[in-house]
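#struct-help
A.M.: can someone run this one for me? Single chain, 163 residues.
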Amino acid sequence: MAGNLLGSAINVNYVDKRRSPTPNARSNSHNTGRRALYTANGAGSTTTLVGAAAVLTTSVNVARIGERFRLFASAVATSPKEETVFTVTAVDATGALVTFSPAAAVATASGNVARVIGDEDWLDETSIEVALLAAGYTQTQLNTMTQNDKVWALRNANDPSGI
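D.P.: on it. Structure tokens below:
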């Protein structure tokens, strides 16, 4: 594993071009992971996602109250539908209806994907490599990359509109 780490933790400290500094800004509030929190298979509203029932054994469409996400038009979309970060506020008993806030600018539609927000891909160099392998990079490519190369590649794979 190529890299330049003295420890195992990654200090993710970069500027997202969409963010302006504010006294109450949350660090990494727009770090969008590759993991799909929820995939819609029906038309919803500006505050709901309609999808298949949750599958707990595979974590498909398993949304939890309080989780934060951004909406994408499809699983292959590289830019979000809007810059808003949403929070799950309620989930019905089957997991087929997820309510969130604030309201989206446009109603959700079949095929929309909610991608989780957070630092799970950035915990350490191994986490970054696992995420890059899932994004289609090969181990041979990763072996030739520095830590900075990997951070840029993961940002580019997860959310190129922020670069």
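A.M.: thanks! Residues 32-117 form one domain.
D.P.: also worth noting: The chain has a mean pLDDT of 76.
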